[in-house]
Each structure stands twice: as structure tokens, then as C-alpha cells.
């Protein structure tokens, strides 16, 4: 696989950007490669600067449920850009997207736009602390809610990928207010509430965990969190930055029939442009400035281009057939991949829901963080390198999720299955 130009660019990038990247997981460290520089995305494909073509399952880590360069999104962004790029003022498109979100997710009566998932979760935590007058938050080991200090404790995604789930620079003062429970273990939550319940402002949870690979909630897990928080006067925050509009047109909460007090969103609602949002009941959201005393602001919040891309994306998704199609295509892909792995004597676990899946390099079930850390990440890295040579672009970490988009056709699925089979052949022939 040619990679001359990527290597040249990466050498220069490392001179002026930490690790040569704008976000750690992109550095490909966990898979023993240097990153590829991408120059174009079209539908289910991406193309790097050396003109290699890949079937893409990263989808920018989630936003691109429609695939790359969807005509409706491109048209909306072009039209918006003709009228300028930012006003620092309310716009009609911002209102349109806010109304679409509020009508799609009933628990969100009011929503505030920000520029990233991190801003959304850090603002939601601040609001929860103001609303309850309490200090502590509960998160789950292996879950990731962005890089605000409160969350960089036993976190997933790039921290888990690097094998260092905490971060330097986070003050003990912060860390002591973040309590960590175990995903799918209500007992671990009940123990924290027994000890500290009166000072717990909120529990923040990914309703489907997507940052330790895909880990699904046990049937009563989310309902149990609702019960515990309700009883103790803490808020329940669903971090739906990944799952918002991914599993259905709305939040996973619509599907799971559990109503959180606050919800955070990102990724899909921006159609690939920088966006985040948090929202919830009117009485809680009324505490957010300028209505209330919880300050939160942003120069580019509600940016007209991001709003246009998000509204265009959700408009396409309002045709619910897309979710049925994503379900069928991803179900078929996951089953075919399981067969291919088993044909190679590898009885690995594949977790899937909707258009998200993860192939865990372990034969045990994967329902908890403890299960996840048993994975053979070294073998995943070898597989990843061989698969890339076969023209398929998976996330460069065992602890990220593969995303199928509306642009993936059966031809892409067939090619992916064949590529995985060839990659496994090479792995088993001792490929490095
Ligand atoms: P951003 O600040 O990256 O927009 O969103 C943070 C965030 C919050 N909540 C959840 C559930 C998330 O998954 C994320 C970000 N996801 C990671 C990938 N799983 C972003 C990729 C990266 O860090 O480069």
C-alpha cells in the first residue's frame, strides 16, 4: 500500500502539532502504524493522499450516519456559506434544528447548542451541580464523556486505547468529586449512593457504551439508574453524543423507555460539522444563562453552517426506512463477519445494535469493562494493519465502535467480508 505522501505529511505535522494529530486516537499508535492523511470522503468510501481507497467504518467516529458528502448536507452547507459563516447572533436554522431535536426527544423541552460533545457534558454537569446544590458525579469505568477534567477518571475512548484511563493535569480536587461505578453493575452504583448519596449531583452514563468498544446495557440497568437517582434526588444524565439519532430518530432513551433528566448530544446532529447540545426539562434548563444563574457561552455556538448540516441530516433521517435499512445491513455484515472469524477458528464476540458494532478479540461475552480489558489488543493491531492493506478502514482501536452508514451498499458489505477473510489469512500466516 503506497503511503509516501501520508508519511511526508505526518513527519511535518509532528513538528507543529502534538503527535502530529488533532485528537490522540487518530495517531494510530494502538495499531502500530502512522496515520493516513485523508483527502476525500464520498459515500461509504474515503481516499487518502496517496490515492488509496477504503471502505470506511469510522465515519468520523460517528457523525456521518448518512455517509460522506451526502448531497443534501453539502447543498445545505454551501447555501449557508453563501450567506456568511458566523453571526454571533440567533439564526432561523438554529431555531429549526432546536425544534427538530425537541420534537424528536420528548425529555428535551429546551436545548442549548455548544461546539462539541465535551462542552455539552461539562455544561450538563455544571447545571446538575447548580440544580441539586451537590458536588459529586458518578461516571462508569470505560465510559467517555469528552475531555473535561471531571471525566478524565477511568475513562474510555482514547484514554483506554492508550492504556492510561486517567489524565495528568487533573487536580485531586476535581478527581475526588468524580465517583466511578461499574457499567451494568447496579450494586456498584447503590454502594456509592449508600456512602455519598446526599452529595451526588448526577449520574452520567452512555445509555449504550461506545467508548470501550460496544457494550450494551443489561435489560434493567438503565431503569435501575433511573430508580436510584429518582430516590436520592440526583439527576440522571444520558450522554447520547454517540447514540443520539444513531439507533432511531431521537435518543436511545426513546427506544429504551427510560427518561433522563438531561441529555447530551453531538456528532450526528451536526452532520459532520462541530456541534454539541444539552437539554432537558424546562424547569432545569431555565437555570442556564441568560434565563438563570448557570453560566455557559460560546462564540460559535449555533453556528449557521453546523446548524444547516445538522438539520439537513435529520431531515433525511426523518424517513424512518433508513433505520430499518441500517439495521438489516449491519445485522447481515455482523453475522457474515462472525462466520468468517469462525471459519478461521476464532470464536470472537461481536456486539451489535442498530448500525454500530465491535468485534472483540476475546471469546468471552463482553458485557462489562472487565470483559473488555481481556481483549487481545496486540492481535487486533495485526488484524487492523492487514485489513487496512485490504482496503477497509476500521477504527484504530479495539475500544472504538464501527459505524455503518446509509451509504454502505451490499457491494461494500461483500467486499468487507472478503477483505476480512484475506486479512485473517495473513494474520494466521504470521503476518505482522
Ligand atoms: P467531542 O468533544 O469529541 O465532540 O465529544 C466527546 C464525547 C462525549 N460523549 C461521548 C459518548 C463520546 O463518544 C464523545 C467523543 N467520542 C470520541 C470517540 N468515541 C471522539 C473521538 C476522538 O476523541 O477523537
Described by strand count, sense and barrel closure, the largest sheet is:
7 strands, mixed
Overall mean pLDDT stands at 96
CATH secondary-structure class of the largest domain: Alpha Beta
CATH topology term of the largest domain: Aspartate Aminotransferase, domain 2
Share of residues in strands: 5-15%
Sequence of secondary-structure elements: HEEEHHEHEHHEHEHEHEEHHHEEHHEEH
User: What's the β-strand tally?
Assistant: 14
Kindly state the percentage of residues in helix.
Answer: 25-40%
CATH superfamily of the largest domain: Type I PLP-dependent aspartate aminotransferase-like (Major domain)
Fold and architecture overview:
The structure is a single chain. 51% of the residues are buried. The protein has two domains: 4-69 and 320-429, Aspartate Aminotransferase, domain 1 (Alpha-Beta Complex), CATH 3.90.1150; 71-317, 3-Layer(aba) Sandwich (Aspartate Aminotransferase, domain 2), CATH 3.40.640. Helix 3 runs parallel beside helix 11 (304-317). It is an alpha/beta fold and 432 residues long. It has a seven-stranded mixed sheet, with helices on both faces. A four-stranded mixed sheet has the order 1-2-3-13. The chain has helices at 4-16, 71-82, 92-104, 117-132, 157-161, 172-175, 186-196, 221-232, 252-256, 282-285, 304-317, 321-343, 369-372, 377-389, 410-428, and strands at 38-42, 45-48, 53-56, 110-114, 136-140, 178-181, 200-205, 235-239, 262-266, 276-280, 349-353, 356-360, 392-393, 402-403. Strand 8, helix 9 (252-256) and strand 9 form a beta-alpha-beta unit. It binds ligand KE4. Ligand KE4 binds at residues 23, 25, 61, 116-118, 121, 144-146, 157-158, 206, 210-211, 239, 241-242, 266, 276, 400.
